[in-house]
Design brief:
Elements (H helix, E strand, L loop, with lengths): L2 E8 L3 H12 L4 E4 L18 H7 L2 H6 L3 E3 L1 E5 L6 E5 L9 E3 L2 H15 L2 E3 L2 E9 L2 E9 L6 E10 L6 H5 L3 E17 L12 E6 L2 E7 L4 E9 H6 L4 H10 L4 H4 L4 E2 L4 E10 L3 E2 L2 E3 L5 E2 L7 H21 L4 H26 L6 H12 L7 H10 L24 E3 L6 E3 L7
Parallel strand pairs: 1-2, 1-10, 2-7, 4-12, 10-18
Antiparallel strand pairs: 3-6, 4-5, 8-9, 9-10, 11-14, 11-15, 11-16, 12-13, 13-14, 16-19, 17-18, 20-21
Helix pairs in contact: 1-4, 1-9, 2-9, 9-10, 10-11, 11-12
Length: 433
């Protein structure tokens, strides 16, 4: 017998777990189909405060804090014409003093288990075989579980593609558009020991410009450090050295990264991934929405991936909930979701492209942030930069398309006041712990 749900979510990563959790919290019947068994490895360990709003919306902050992740109070950069190491603290501007450096296997499991607790039905080892349509509208899926060969049919009023870079619906409908100027490749591994940045900077990510690209060093709570290099795909592809040898050569020719890794020991294999940026030409269609990497992937320079996924998921949950309650306004709500997410992604993408030119003065990066998110000058340029790299520009309305139309339990309005801005921040709880 075919079961019908309010929503079927394809994928149980941060975007899928968040969408499902918020919908279930609002009383909707949700099925999550995750192809892997959690916990599972994933890159993307450095978070930014833009997702803290959604952590609070889900009600999962205590579980995240209890996991003991490294608290990340800011970002340290060796970037710009001056050639100096400089840092920003999130608490300088905005409602949050910290976010986290996480092991994604643990963090993603917390989110998925929380979605279960909120009432979502989560099936792991579930592979979607077909997206069902009727008169051009997505109406359900067929899937198999584990090694099973007999497909299971499930139907829903809405399908959410949270399949990550598999981009199930984006590929199905030919919506994926690549950003050819951001075709990069990442090479990374893990080291035990070494050093951290001093004092209040000790939990920061280090982002260091390199003549061939850039390096990251992320301190994790178990004493390991995630260390990687990102450079143009074509350039790395032409390098015939083994991946580890290539990475070690970039570290050896760095300034700050090699100091942090002095006396550190490599404790894991070397991994690679294509960091090819792309955006789908639309994020919705009849009967479906796309969230997270299924909708778009933006270069990881500012660690925006999980925030884009969870902020988009919060908006997607509000959208679907509103459409379920007012089906006559489906097109209006779906278009508002698309426009809000696209505006936010466009702002991030514009800033990343500008920032990749490491020959500019630091103040030029601050000024660019002001141009993008604060053209009337309500904050200082440095504050604008902090808001931008914190992912908190999403709170400035563009990612809140119709939250008032959603019922209680989805995207509840919360007010906080940033101590530096002196004005309300929608959907944020001030947390200074």
């Amino acid at each position: 017998m075919t079961r019908t749900y309010d929503a079927i979510v394809i994928g149980g990563g941060p975007s899928g777990a968040t969408t499902a959790g918020l919908l279930a919290k609002a009383g909707h019947d949700v099925l999550v189909l995750e192809k892997e068994q959690f916990p599972r490895y994933h890159i993307g360990e450095s978070l930014i405060p833009g997702l803290n709003t959604v952590i609070d919306e889900l009600g999962v902050r205590d579980a995240v804090d209890a996991a003991g992740f490294t608290r990340k109070a800011g970002i340290s950069l060796l970037w710009g014409a001056e050639g100096k190491l400089w840092s920003i603290a999130f608490g300088e501007s905005g409602p949050y003093d910290y976010t986290w450096q996480v092991k994604r296997a643990d963090f993603d499991l917390i989110l998925l288990e929380h979605a279960r607790k909120l009432g979502a039905m989560v099936v792991e080892h579930a592979s979607v075989r077909e997206v069902l349509t009727s008169d051009g509208r997505a109406t359900g899926v067929t899937y198999t579980v584990g090694r099973g060969t007999e497909p299971i049919r499930a139907e829903a009023r809405y399908i959410v593609d949270a399949s990550g870079q598999a981009k199930i619906l984006g590929r199905e409908f030919g919506l994926v558009e690549m950003h050819d100027d951001l075709k990069n490749l990442a090479v990374w591994t893990y080291y035990q020991g070494g050093r951290r940045l001093p004092d209040e900077l000790s939990g920061n990510i280090l982002v260091e410009n390199h003549p061939d690209g850039w390096l990251w060093v992320i301190p994790l709570s178990d004493g390991t450090q995630s260390v990687g290099f990102v450079g143009p795909n074509d350039q790395i592809a032409e390098d015939t050295r083994p991946n580890l040898e290539l990475l070690e050569s970039k570290i050896a020719t760095s300034r700050e990264a090699k100091q942090l890794l002095r006396d550190a020991t490599q404790v894991a294999g070397c991994r690679t991934a294509k960091d090819w940026s792309y955006t789908c030409s639309r994020f919705y269609g009849p009967g479906y929405l796309m969230v997270g990497d299924a909708a778009a992937f933006i270069d990881p320079l500012f660690s925006t991936g999980v925030t884009l996924a969870m902020k988009g998921a919060s908006s997607a949950a509000a959208t679907i909930s509103a459409m379920l309650h007012e089906p006559a306004r489906e097109d209006e709500f779906a278009q508002a979701y698309d426009e809000g997410l696209r505006d936010f992604l466009g702002t991030v993408l514009s800033f990343v492209r500008f920032f990749y030119d490491a020959s500019k003065d630091v103040e030029a990066y601050w000024a660019k942030a002001k141009d993008l998110i604060d053209p009337i000058g309500r904050m200082t340029a440095r504050d604008d930069f902090i808001i931008m790299v914190s992912g908190l520009n999403a709170e400035l309305a563009v990612m809140q398309p119709h939250h008032d139309a959603a019922p209680d339990g989805v995207a509840e309005g919360r007010l906080a006041t940033s101590r530096n801005m002196g004005m309300p921040w929608a959907h944020v709880e001030t947390v200074k712990r």
